[in-house]
Design brief:
The radius of gyration is 15 Å and the shape is elongated. The protein is of the alpha+beta class and about 140 residues long. The protein has a single domain, classed as STM4215-like, CATH 3.30.2000.30. The protein is about 25% helix and about 40% strand. It has a five-stranded mixed beta sheet with strand order 1-2-3-5-4.
Amino acid sequence: MTSAAFALQQAIFAKLSGDAATTSALGGPRIYDDVPARAEFPFMTFGHSTERDWSTGTDQGCEHVITLHVWSRARGRKETQAVIAAARDALHDQELPLEGHRLVNLRHEYSEARRDSDGETFHGIARFRAITEPS
C-alpha cells in the first residue's frame, strides 16, 4: 500500500496540475518535487512535509503538514501572492482521492511572501494541514 504521505503528495500534485487558476498563475504546469535545471519562473515546489500518528484508541490516522513553495522573479509580490491564492483555493477544504487512504480534511494554515536572500527572487510559502486514515 502507498504511504499516506506519498498518496497525499500525489493527490495534491494532480489537483494543482489540473487546476486552471493555478497553472494560469504559474504560466503552465510548473509544479515540481525536484526542480529541473534552468526551470522557468514562476514555479512551485514541494517543500518540507511531516507525518505524525493521529490514531485514536479505535481508529488509525495520520496528521500531515505539507509546505508548498512559490518562486518568482517578477517585480514585487503580486505574482507570488496570485500563485499562493490559486493553490489555496484549489486545495483548502477540498476532497482529494488518495490511493489506499481517505482524506478526512485538508486545511490551509498560513501563507507568506518575501524577498529571497538573492535580492531578485520572491519566495512564497503556503502551509497546509491534512488528516488521513486508511481506506
